[in-house]
Design a protein that fits this description.
Blueprint (H helix, E strand, L loop, with lengths): L2 H23 L1 H9 L3 H28 L6 H17 L7 H12 L4 H32 L6 H27 L1 H22 L1 H6 L2 H20 L1 H28 L6 H14 L10 H13 L4 H29 L20
């Protein structure tokens, strides 16, 4: 099955899931909320998304600079947005975000693939840490003001957050102190892919050759070590990640505000990172599963009905997802980036495009 066919199939399933949510909630009630939205208030959310993307791209740029490779200017920003575009439209693109981002940035700048992958991976990891911090702060504020989850729901939320935190801490330990373990895992995964994908793709077979993977893993590990040793740079990156998240979350707050049903910003800060972390639906941008989960959790915690929560989530996704797809798509078109050719795990010397 070609990538374009998988892409169409993914979006078809996503739209069916969103349509199912709309049918279950009641399209008339949701539409009534949508048409009442204040467009001026809603526009603030779009500006906040632009700010978030700008802050996050600056964080990646600074991490890349700490590896000795300086990138800047319009071409870098376009490459970053192109990576965001691929991450949003490809099934499972969220999990492969650093690979997609590193490929587009290294393709359009002088920064090597491995250094860019290290910077993008470190940022993705620190961005998860930042989202966890914000979720904990948001939950604490909700509980303190008696607006948060309680009983079984609170227990389930805490268990999920503890599980994610344990995974994050384990990955931190491996990345900083046991990089050889991660390199060994990369070699085993590459060997498995070469035995399967490599049989039908000479390009993948060459890219996944043991010596190429070992060399790339060593350079990637070295870049990770350089980044981990710069604590000041890491602190700055976390601060930028938190700032980006605060901007990125604002559209949900303004969406509720636009339809005349304001909710506490602490609720937004809590629910969006949690739903994002736990959403494992293998569809473009998590479409379908994300909307269902976010609308359900928000309606359970906020003094609003499910139709109102669903309408606010739909408005949120206009800026949080579709606006990013639009910006990223325009950037990708300007750089001739395509979704038809996936980036390799290990780049070949004659790669010409995504």
């Amino acid at each position: 099955m070609s990538r374009r066919v998988r892409l169409v199939a993914g979006f078809t399933l996503a739209f069916l899931a969103v349509g199912g949510l709309l049918w279950a909630v009641g399209p008339e009630a949701v539409l009534a909320e949508l048409v009442s939205a204040d467009l001026a208030v809603l526009s603030v959310g779009f500006l906040a998304v632009v700010a978030a993307l700008g802050v996050w791209s600056e964080a990646v740029r600074r991490l890349l600079a700490s590896t000795g490779h300086t990138v800047r200017g319009r071409r870098y920003r376009s490459a970053y947005l192109s990576g965001e575009f691929l991450k949003q439209v490809l099934p499972m693109g969220q999990s492969g975000g650093p690979v997609l981002m590193s490929y587009t940035v290294s393709r359009e700048t002088a920064a090597p693939y491995e250094s860019t992958l290290a910077a993008a991976s470190v940022f993705a990891f620190l961005n998860v840490v930042a989202s966890l911090v914000l979720a904990v702060v948001g939950l604490a504020l909700l509980v303190a003001t008696q607006r948060g989850p309680s009983g079984t729901l609170l227990r389930n939320v805490l268990v999920a957050m503890v599980a994610v935190t344990v995974v994050v801490l384990a990955l931190t330990y491996l990345a900083v102190y046991r990089r050889e373990v991660l390199e060994g895992i990369a070699l085993r995964v590459a060997a498995g892919l070469r035995r399967t994908v490599g049989r039908v793709s000479p390009r993948a077979d060459a890219a996944l050759a043991p010596e190429r993977v070992a060399d790339a893993a060593a350079r990637f590990g070295g870049s990770i070590g350089d980044l981990a040793g710069d604590r000041r740079r890491i602190g700055t990156t976390v601060a930028l990640a938190v700032t980006g998240w605060l901007c990125f979350l604002l559209p949900l707050y303004t969406s509720f505000l636009a339809i005349g049903e304001p909710v506490p910003y602490a609720l937004v800060v809590f629910v969006v990172p949690v739903v994002t972390l736990l959403n494992v639906v293998p569809l473009p941008g998590g479409l379908g599963g994300f909307e269902v989960a976010l609308a359900g959790v928000t309606a359970a915690l906020a003094p609003v009905g499910l139709p109102t929560a669903t309408a606010a989530v739909f408005l949120f996704r206009l800026s949080n997802y579709w606006f990013i797809v639009l910006l990223g798509g325009l950037a990708a078109a300007s750089l001739s980036v395509r979704v038809s050719d996936p980036p390799p795990v290990v780049p070949l010397e004659d790669d010409e495009g995504v």
